[in-house]
Amino acid sequence: MRIILQRVKEASVRVNEEAIGQIGKGALVLLGAGTEDSEQDVEYLVEKILGLRIFEDEASKMNLSVTDIGGELLVVSQFTLYGDCRKGRRPSFDKAAPPEIAENLYNHFIERIRDFGVPVKTGKFRAMMDVHLINWGPVTLMLDSKKLF
């Protein structure tokens, strides 16, 4: 699985001009599932994200996690994280998981975050979405459950 994680002051997602998810201080998680991903990948990334120290403490050092600050997560599916642009001019999505598998992993990811008691809002799987955010810092990180980067 691949994730783009953005520390935000606020973020929201809209579908057909309707706000379906909105958070305050926390993180926007853009999540893509690959053909080789499983629930093990979900477990690794959930624990990584919830423990990642990307928020500043009183000494202005990134020492606090989203759980430490009582923050929220907005999770949005994004299969394009598996777009391969190395060849030609059109991205190949061969490594992206089929929609049925990807949706199950996406939903499991959200459930696992909720199991930890972290407030989470979501986008709508396979929908055209407008995502709005105020990137705080900015802080943007890439994570891959296969530890490719």
What is the number of E strands?
8
**Regions with pLDDT < 50 over 5+ consecutive residues?**
none
CATH class call = Alpha Beta
Counting helices, strands and paired strands, the structural category is alpha/beta
Mean pLDDT equals: 98
User: Helical stretch count?
Assistant: 2
Secondary-structure element series? EEEHEEEHEE
How large a portion of the residues is in β-strands, by DSSP E? 35-45%
Our count of domains comes out at: 1
Distance between the termini: 12 Å
The largest pleated sheet is described as:
6 strands, mixed
The CATH superfamily bears the name: D-tyrosyl-tRNA(Tyr) deacylase
Describe the structure.
The chain is α/β, with parallel strands linked by helices. It is built from two helices and eight strands, in the order βββαβββαββ. Strands 1, 2, 3, 6, 7 and 8 form a six-stranded mixed β-sheet that branches. The longest helix has 17 residues, at 99-115. The protein is globular. The termini are close together.
